[in-house]
Design goal:
By secondary structure, the protein is α/β, with parallel strands linked by helices. The protein has 7 helices and 6 strands. Helix 1 packs across helix 7 and helix 4 crosses helix 6. The longest helix has 16 residues. The structure holds flavin mononucleotide.
Length: about 200
């Protein structure tokens, strides 16, 4: 896989999304990044991290943060309808929404494509590319569960951020890597974030 899109929405769990982008960049993949306004609020609240209001500023800052090569990380504004993600003629190989709010989940399940985050999901589903949704809420209501079922039936992978404890995580970073490892496996991106069960 060469081009992967990632969206951060305003659910708790931005550390998963940032670590995912770091790993994808480290693996030499071109990443298209989107984030909602609510994701900016959550970034400040849970990570003391500022996601800039302007996509161009975010691209500069995150390219430096992740040591990406020139052009490897492209950040798009939510009304940037000329971005490749907006069209079925140029979809990414896969798209991960991490973390995904119940609001964004509901919009995608209903076929609403009113910004680039939801339009890109619509495009990826209709073009038969991989859509991975990392939903975060607890508990789930019947509405949330039905929306997830609808998306799974449409071909999306529903991958909740549920770290396992059987590998004895020693830190929050270990728990984040557990979830990111499962996402990278879905994307068939090689990694060594956590030991594999049963491996010597
Ligand atoms: C600190 C914080 C944490 C939030 N956590 C969640 C969450 O885990 N799941 C969720 O569905 N919404 C959560 N929300 C609410 C969403 O951000 C809100 O519904 C927002 O409108 C979602 O917009 P978006 O889907 O465009 O990002 C949280 C909001 C804040 C400020």
């Amino acid at each position: 896989m060469k081009t992967i899109a990632v969206a951060f929405t305003g659910a708790s769990g931005l550390p998963y999304g940032l670590r995912l982008v770091e790993c994808l960049i480290g693996a030499g993949i071109t990443v298209h990044l989107l984030y909602s306004q609510a994701a900016q609020i959550v970034a400040r609240q849970e990570m003391d991290f500022t996601l800039p209001g302007r996509a161009a500023d975010a691209q500069t800052e995150l390219t430096a943060r992740f040591n990406a090569t020139a052009g490897q990380l492209k950040v798009h504004g939510l009304q940037e309808w000329f971005a490749p993600l907006a069209s079925g003629s140029n979809p990414p190989d896969a798209y991960v929404i991490c973390p995904c709010t119940m609001g964004t989940l509901a919009k995608i399940a209903a076929g609403m494509a009113d910004d680039l985050i939801t339009r890109a999901a619509d495009v990826v589903l209709k073009e038969g590319r991989k859509l991975i949704i990392v939903p975060r809420e607890t508990p789930f209501s019947i509405i949330h569960l039905e929306n997830m079922l609808r998306l799974a039936r449409a071909g999306a992978v529903i991958l909740p951020p549920n770290p396992g404890f059987y590998q004895h995580p020693a830190s929050v970073s270990d728990m984040i890597d557990f979830v990111v490892a499962r996402i990278l496996d879905q994307l068939q991106v090689p990694h060594q974030l956590v030991p594999r069960w049963g491996a010597e």
